[in-house]
């Protein structure tokens, strides 16, 4: 997965997690989250995606991560990786 693909993937997963957070405020939403498998606190990643996300956030990935494994990454770490990728991919229009 290249940098643009990881950026798009994290964008989609973070948006889905935000929607799950919004739904978790009421019983029906929590029930929907449970049956749909969506989490408001974690996003699912493969081992390769997990390693790439850690490296994008400039965090040393744990040694136990294997490429074909399935993992869940906390939203704050996913947001750090997303923000770092956004800086590298999108031109700085502020100046």
Q: Tell me what portion of residues adopts beta-strand conformation.
A: 5-15%
Distance between the termini: 31 Å
Give the uncertain stretches in residue-range form. Answer: none
Structural class: mainly alpha
Please count the beta strands (DSSP E, at least 2 residues each). Answer: 2
Task: Annotate the secondary structure layout.
Layout: H1 3-23, H2 27-36, E1 42-46, H3 47-56, E2 70-74, H4 75-89
Antiparallel strand pairs: 1-2
Helix pairs in contact: 1-4, 3-4
Fold and architecture overview:
- The protein is mostly helical and 95 residues long.
- The chain has one domain.
- It is built from 4 helices and 2 strands; from the N terminus they run ααβαβα.
- The protein has a two-stranded antiparallel ribbon.
- The termini are far apart.
- 19% of the residues are buried.
Can you describe this structure in just a few lines?
The chain has 95 residues and is mainly alpha-helical. It has four helices and two strands.
């Amino acid at each position: 997965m290249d940098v643009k693909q990881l950026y798009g993937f994290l964008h989609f997963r973070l948006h889905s997690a935000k929607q799950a957070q919004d739904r978790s405020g009421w019983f029906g939403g929590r029930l929907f989250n449970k049956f749909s498998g969506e989490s408001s606190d974690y996003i699912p990643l493969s081992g390769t995606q997990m390693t790439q996300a850690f490296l994008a956030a400039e965090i040393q990935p744990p040694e136990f991560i294997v490429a074909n494994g399935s993992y869940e990454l906390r939203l704050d770490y996913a947001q750090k990786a997303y923000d770092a990728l956004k800086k590298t991919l999108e031109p700085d229009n502020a100046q």
